[in-house]
Amino acid sequence: MRWTDELFYILIFNCITGAIAYGLWILLKMNMARRKKLKYIYPMLGIVEAFFIFPIMYIYLKISTHVPGRHGMYYGTLFLPTPFIYHAQCVIAGIWIVGAVWNFAKYAFQYLKFQKVLEKSVSFRLPETEKNKIIQELGMKGNVELYQNYAVTSPIVIGWRQKKIIFPVREYEEKELTTILYHELVHIRQHILEMKKVGIFLKLIFWCNPMMNGLLRSIDMWGEIACDRYVCSETAYPYTAQEYYTVAVDGLEQSHLWMPKMVTGFRKKNNFKSRILQMKNYKKENDFKRIGGMTLVVFLCAVCTTTTFAAGEGFRAGYDRVFESTKVEIEEEVIEDTEYEEMFVPEQETIVSGELPDENPVEGNEEFQISTLESGTMFFAGTVYADRDQCIAICVNIMPAGQTVCYGIMTPDDKLWYVYAIDSGTHNFRISNSGNYKIFVKNVSTGDVDLEGGYVSY
Asked: Peptidase M56 domain spans which residues (predicted)?
């Protein structure tokens, strides 16, 4: 199977596997959110992304269906193409590539436009002391730069290696600054930006999967909830949860500026109501402890994996049915390669050189060439030694096209073993007795021919 086919099936299987994992995550999330156990909902989205990335179904099918053969591994009818399957693959791959390129180009254009807006940001030094105190409390390494920008109406976090917090340009009270810094720095500490970037990349690759929009919305909303929960329950945030959300409500974003989904937004209004409802009546002591969270993660991985294996078996069964219903039987013409045997009678043959070659065999392989071998004429190319059960391989090329020769070996007891060839030919003669064997070619066409070829014993 070609690498392009391998890549095609990996993408198809990963798309299915990721959709299975996301569907199971939704079921688990609904149960946990109802019971106010929120701590591990967002981290489990990382498992969903992993199932979109790692080719679990593909590896399973390759391992479970392979049969060792002479030329590698054989996988039954799985991955074998028929004309229908081949054309279907070409159509699907073409649509997929065009869509992926279009989505990448559109997103890149919008992101570059957004970056130009951010180039007008100015340094924001006012909350530097408070920022350093929170960074130290959270145990973070590295520096986080603070900026202000007139185009931003809600504080956001951007950046790849060097993270930046962009504030709207206005005056801030101490409570508001502290709340925003806690929220955005927790975003950075929990690597939520990286999770969003992976999600966006998967969305651009698997753009045809309708569940990808839901996955991005879940990453966005539950990333904000994870920060809300951590700030209000795990840090030394000096204010109450009610004051925390009051700060957010007072400055809900009103901007029409397009912002990439890979940025975070403390005051995003599209999921604010859901954030408040999820955090309502939340109590840290009722949430899962570490052992419970690890058990939950293992359970999700196990269920996703077994469901993926079952889906793989379903895909294989479906592929077999499609293969059987669309396969085409092809009849190939079998070229006769029969060996003939007869006694050599020198008086009945016209030998091109007028004499037989000497008895000294060549070592290794030898090439020969002759121009204008007349019709009915025999040419002896040389002598080669071969042991019992070895083979003598001979190849010939004939010009002009459409002409026929017979070629083969003469045994020590003067028997001719030969086969016929049109245009060209290659044949292996198995040796039954050790000795010196003469290589010959005879023109059996009605016209003259030119010859070139070679022979070797092995």
From this structure: 91-234
